[in-house]
Design brief:
Layout lengths: L5 E3 L12 E20 L2 E15 L10 E7 L11 E6 L12 H14 L10 H17 L14 E4 L8 H12 L11 E5 L6 E4 L6 H6 L13
Parallel strand pairs: 1-8
Antiparallel strand pairs: 2-3, 2-5, 2-6, 3-4, 4-8, 5-7, 7-8
Helix pairs in contact: 1-2, 2-3
C-alpha cells in the first residue's frame, strides 16, 4: 500500500532551515479522494488518490510544535506510508522527494497551488474531486513541471492519469486541476508555510503550516481534514 498526505501545523520555522529537526510519523487513515490509474515513467498502477492522515509525535527542536494529528499530501509515488511509525527529517519542500529533490522552481509551483486551494483541500468533507485533483497536481508538478504552463498536463509527459477503466478523468477532476494549474506562477502572495517530512524508507509528505488553521482550531469548527491515501489495487 502506498499513501499520500497533507497537514495543517505550525511549520514556518522550517521553510528556510538548513538543518533538519526530526519527528515520528505514523499513518492512521485516508480521507476524501478517489481511485485513478496513474502512469509515471512508463509504469502504470491503480491508486486511491487524495487526502491522508498521519499522527506526528516526539518532534525535536522546532518540530516539537508539530506534534499531533495532521493531514498531508505526498510528493512521490515510489514509497509507501507506514502505520508502525518512522522517524522523519523535517525539511523544506524543495528537498522532497528525498530520492530526487524537486528544487526551488517546483517548490514554488506547489506553494502556488496551496494558495489557490486556500485550505479547502484539507477539510473534512472536501470534495473527492478536489482532493484527487490536488494530489495529482502535486505529482504532475514534481514529475513534469519545467517552468512553463504547457508542461502541466496529466494526459501527456512522464506523469499521466486516467480513470481506472482507462477513460479520461471526470470533468469535475479536470476542472479542479485546471484551476490549480492556472494559479502556478500567478500568485501575488505565495503560501509560504509548508514543510517536508522526509524519510529514506517511507513515503515523503508535505505539511501545510500556520497560514491554515491548526488541527485544534479545525476540530472546534468541525473541519478536521482527513488524510489522503493512494492504494495500489
Amino acid at each position: 500500500m502506498k499513501t499520500a498526505i497533507a497537514t495543517t501545523v505550525a511549520v514556518a520555522a522550517f521553510c528556510g532551515s538548513a538543518n533538519a529537526d526530526f519527528i515520528n510519523v505514523k499513518f492512521t487513515g485516508t480521507g476524501s479522494g478517489q481511485n485513478a490509474r496513474v502512469t509515471i515513467n512508463g509504469s502504470t498502477h491503480d491508486y486511491f488518490v487524495g487526502q491522508l492522515k498521519h499522527t506526528l509525535s516526539a518532534g525535536t527542536g522546532a518540530a516539537a510544535a508539530m506534534n499531533g494529528p495532521v493531514v498531508t499530501y505526498c510528493s512521490d509515488l515510489f514509497q509507501s506510508v507506514t502505520s508502525s511509525g518512522k522517524t522523519y527529517d523535517v525539511v523544506g519542500i524543495d528537498q522532497l522527494p528525498g530520492s530526487n529533490p524537486m528544487g526551488a522552481a517546483k517548490a514554488s509551483a506547489i506553494r502556488d497551488i496551496y494558495t489557490v486551494a486556500a485550505g479547502a483541500q484539507l477539510a473534512l468533507g472536501a470534495s473527492n474531486a478536489l482532493a484527487c485533483a490536488f494530489q495529482l497536481a502535486i505529482w504532475e508538478i514534481v514529475t513534469d513541471y519545467n517552468g512553463t504552463a504547457a508542461s502541466l498536463n496529466v494526459t501527456s509527459g512522464s506523469f499521466k492519469a486516467k480513470k481506472t477503466n482507462n477513460n479520461s478523468l471526470d470533468s469535475s477532476v479536470t476542472t479542479q486541476l485546471n484551476n490549480l494549474f492556472a494559479g502556478v506562477g500567478h500568485q501575488s502572495t505565495q503560501y509560504s508555510t509548508l514543510a517536508g517530512l522526509r524519510s529514506g524508507s517511507a513515503q515523503d509528505q508535505i505539511v501545510a503550516g500556520s497560514a491554515v488553521p491548526t488541527p485544534g482550531t479545525l476540530a472546534a469548527a468541525g473541519l478536521i481534514g482527513l488524510a489522503g491515501l493512494r492504494r495500489r489495487r
